[in-house]
Amino acid sequence: MKVLIMSDSHGLTTEIDEITNRHLDETKLMFHCGDSELSKEHSGLSLFKGVKGNCDLDSELPNELIEDLNGKTLYMTHGHLFNVKASLMNLKYRALEVNANIVCFGHSHIAGAEMIDGILFINPGSIRLPILRKQKTYAILDLKERIAKVTFFDVNGQIIEELSQQFILE
């Protein structure tokens, strides 16, 4: 199962449409980790499940989302309510509370994936204002049983090899 993950698009619409159309046929789900700054009803987000970021004024979006991915539990939040710019500790505790195997979040605009105490944390970065790198990024999670491959792309669809990794889930 392939899942597209993006975050922190901060008002962009053309780029969201291009990324959506680029991966529409290969992904089963699309997630936006907040700060789209678009309404929940915006056509660009119609295929996305999303959460509310600190810059989202649409109160219709939830602060968190829990999704079953073929027996693995994905937890998504923006990250600002868990102080992710300082540490992932609070977010890890929430992941443990909801028995998450995978956590998707944004807020810091820093792209990366890492395994912490058996939980896979994915931050797709930002397609508008990246931090610590020049590339504007998003990610695709390819989940096959216990194997989770996270591939990062720049906004133009080029794979960013140095960020992309494969993990084994418990």
What does this structure look like?
- There is one protein chain.
- The chain has 170 residues and is mainly β.
- It has two helices and eleven strands.
- Strands 3-2-1-9-10-11 form a six-stranded mixed sheet, with no helix packed on it. The protein has a five-stranded mixed sheet with strand order 4-5-6-8-7, covered by helices on one side.
Q: Please, what is the average pLDDT?
A: 96
Strand content of the residues, in percent?
25-35%
Sheet of most strands: 6 strands, mixed
Using only C-alpha atoms, the radius of gyration works out to: 14 Å
Shape: globular
So how many helices? 2
Element order, helices and strands? EHEEEEHEEEEEE
Task: Give a quick set of tags describing it.
single chain; 11 strands; five-stranded mixed sheet; six-stranded mixed sheet; globular; mainly beta; about 35% strand; about 170 residues
Structural topology:
Layout: E1 2-6, H1 14-23, E2 29-32, E3 49-50, E4 64-69, E5 72-77, H2 89-97, E6 102-104, E7 112-116, E8 119-123, E9 137-144, E10 147-154, E11 165-168
Parallel strand pairs: 1-2, 2-3, 5-6, 6-8
Antiparallel strand pairs: 1-9, 4-5, 7-8, 9-10, 10-11
Care to give the gist of this entry?
This protein is mainly β.
